[in-house]
Amino acid sequence: MTKFESSQLRRTILRMAHAGATVHIGCAFSLVEILAVLYRNHLRLGAAGPDAPERDYLVLSKGHGVMAQYACLYELGWLKDDDLDHYFGDGTRLKGLSDAHVPGLEVSSGSLGHGLSVGVGLALAAKRTGSGQRCFAVVGDGEINEGAIWEALLFASHWQLSNLVLIVDANGFQAMGSTGEVMDLGSIAAKLSAFGLETREVDGHDEAALDAAFTELTHLPGSRPRALVAHTVKGQGVSFMARDNRWHYTRLDSNTYAAALAELRN
Amino acid sequence: MRKAFSRCLVEAAQADDRVLLLTGDHGYALFDEFRQACPGQYLNAGVAEQNMVGVAAGLAKAGFRPVVYGLSAFVPIRVLEQIKMDVCYEQLPVVFIGDGAGVVYSSLGSSHQCTEDVAALRAVPHLSLLSPADDLEMTACMRLALSAAGPVYLRMGKADLGRVHERPPAVQWGELCSVRPGAGRLAWIATGSMVPPALAAAKRWPGSAVWSAPTLKPLLSEGISAICRRHEVIVVLEEHSIYGGLGSAVAEIACTEAPCWVCRVGITDRFSQFCGSYEYLLREHQLDLESIASQVEDFLRRVSDSRRGLTPAA
After folding, report:
1. Is residue B200 part of a domain?
2. ipTM, interface predicted TM-score of the complex
């Protein structure tokens, strides 16, 4: 089995979502290829497990997509079958939002707009010590409504954090509607460029394109922080979830679970 | 007191290059010495306090010892959620300095005054709170803060009120410092800028004991309850709301460990109405010497009436 295979990751997400009767499936599905490519080809995780001191940081600021990261941690063997099958069980440790107490998760980012600043601090620390560590920070396009995100970008540019790679999971939706309806962002890439980031755009479900973009961004010379706007589909991978924002909040029943799994087996 | 603060910070930074000072574009003149001695350890994070606290959390996770400076109206109040989730949830060793606490910025109005920080922060787990009264307590508090394993908030209020201790006090987490011994009817417990007025007002009741509370959290119940047992009335003074601050903390311990009368003197759930000098603002909030004494007299009268069954003490 190829590690971090996207259909397998989505099946893991569904398995957790069904076990825990959880929401936020669409938020996790848009993120799958981004995380798959990062874990497979780019993150240098080190040899000592989740807390290896020399690791690159994957900061999931968009905490609502945490099931996609759990699926990756399962592939790494850092989460076990028991963790998936008892998701949201009484007294279990995996929460519905990113939580730094879980080995492998760097930040507690259920409240949006927090994780990026912590990631900026991690990147700054790596710069100061010369450790060579990089920080890949994933935010959502809904999340960047938060003012703290733009504070963090100003800071990252000012302090020349070229080891920071910001990834925007631009799935076009937030909790209550499309980003255009709720808080129109215009061109995210233009805004990031204007804030001083070396910015690229990519189809966030095209793994070859993502891979090439991360390779380019992490090898670019210069002192500017880097950004990748990944255009994605909320609910990508299952026909009846794609672009249907009800899957921000809808829970699986046995019929939708079976139908979704059937699509991901093809 | 500000000189002691600066000196402690410079010494700590010179001894340990993991100590970093982050400021939200505040601290004019205060950091001249630091910037000269340790320029590489000074980071002005701009007028962007939320990001500053998140960055401090990231730095602390990676092994640095950030000291985050702001006016107390902004650090902690504007960034309470970042303090809670980014720093305290993970028990990271970040020191927060809230300068100008209380009504120090008397002429700038309520945006720059802060009488709710202790109440807001006491309820945040893992966070310890310090509130020094003079330069000697400041030096001791900075040592505690900079060697703590977890997050600390240091409240710096009116800083030029002179010494309350004759020699360096032994400041220990959770414990009060005796400023004037006494076995009379009243014990006074004050913190920060209110220790000097407590000393002055207490003279009107000879035999009063006066204590300073440089550590607001933890606050060990043994020390407080021993004082409650020795005296009939405890007067608590703070330049902070009477809701949720030191007065509340003392009352919480008293009512469960050693019931006694607790007279809470502080800001009575109101914003400043006018501007003026610091002394004027204290009068407006009834925290000048005369107002403090008359509040205590009123309280004692109500205690006596209550004892005689005339009216309930309010």
Report:
1. yes
2. 0.96
